[in-house]
Structures are given as structure tokens and as C-alpha cells.
Amino acid sequence: MRIGIVSDTHLRSGDVTLPAPLVRGLEGVDRIIHAGDWTHPDVIPLFERIAPVDSVAGNNDGPDIVRRFGRIALLELGGRRIGLIHGDGPYASTEERAWRAFQHNDVDIIVFGHSHVPYMEERQGVVLFNPGSPTDKRFQKRYSYGILEIRDGTFRLEHRFFDKKD
Q: Hey, how many other C-beta atoms are within 10 angstroms of the C-beta on 130?
């Protein structure tokens, strides 16, 4: 099973296209996980044309997206348990908020967004993963997303980076 992982697309209604390097990189995935901050519901079908989508809403998403996806999810894909949350909130780092949301849920992977910073860390046997953003890199050098491959009971996560001109 091959899964694309995306967050923080921050696209608006009049700006509804996905970067070509992202579309190429997601070709052939079985599923897409989006960690929130779509910012407009018109963005969702762009990903659904590529593969089925699991998601949560982020702090910049309106009530329609919150109603559709909720703010937290627990997924079981390819025999692995994946916690999904945007990661916004007070009093801790984004990574720490994501960890606290699922640390007692027997998950293999925690996917989160919010910071736009690609991140991967293993903590107590759980991989915390932030794909960064494929459309709003902020202070990062490159745009990014993630790929999760699950095969024969094992999984591999990686970041994929690109420039707009790729």
C-alpha cells in the first residue's frame, strides 16, 4: 500500500490547482492522508481525483470542512494504526500537541501539520511525521509532502521535496 501524505495546502477558491510535482509524486497512490488547513472545500476534489482521501480539519478550515472531516482521526491502513491531527493549539510545540493527542492510543504513526515544517522523529516506537506543505513553504527552502509505503507488516516513511519550477 502506498499513501501520499499532505498538509497545509492553504489554497483559496480562485487558486485551486495543485503543483505539478505534487500531482506527479502522488500518481499511483492508493490513498491520500491530509492533515488539515485545506482552507477551501474546492481543494478536496483535486486530491480525490488522485485517490480516496482521509483527513482532518485544521485551524484555518471553515465549518463545512470541520463537519466533513472532524478535528482528529484514528485510521487503520495496511495493518497499521495512524493517528491524524492538525496539531494547532496553545501551550506546547506542534509535535508535542500531536504526541499528547495519541500517546495512549497504540498507534504506529502520528501524522500532523500546522507548522509547515517537514518533521520525522521516532518516539517510544511511534513515528511522528509532518509532511510540511506542498503549496505554502513559508520559511522552508522547498515545498514538501510525504510518502508512506506499507508492505508485509513493515512501513517506510519519507519526505519528498520540490521547487515550484520542477
A: 28
Give me 134's grid cell.
506542498
* Amino acid identity, position 111: V
Neighbours of 31 (CB within 10 A): 18
CA–CA separation, 64 vs 55, rounded Å? Answer: 13
Residue 117 belongs to domain spanning? 2-162
Which is nearest to 10 in space by CA: 42, 33, 49?
42
pLDDT in tens, 11-53: 877 667 899 999 999 999 999 999 999 999 999 999 999 999 9
CA dist 128 and 130 (Å) reads 7
Task: State which amino acid sits at residue 128.
Answer: L
Q: What is the CATH number of the domain that holds 122?
A: 3.60.21.10
Separation CA 40–CA 123 (nearest Å): 33
Q: pLDDT tens digits, residue range 122-140?
A: 999 999 999 999 999 989 9
User: Into how many domains does the chain fold?
Assistant: 1
Distance CA 158, CA 44 (A): 23
| pTM attached to this predicted model | 0.96
Q: Are 122 and 100 in contact (CB under 8 A)?
A: no
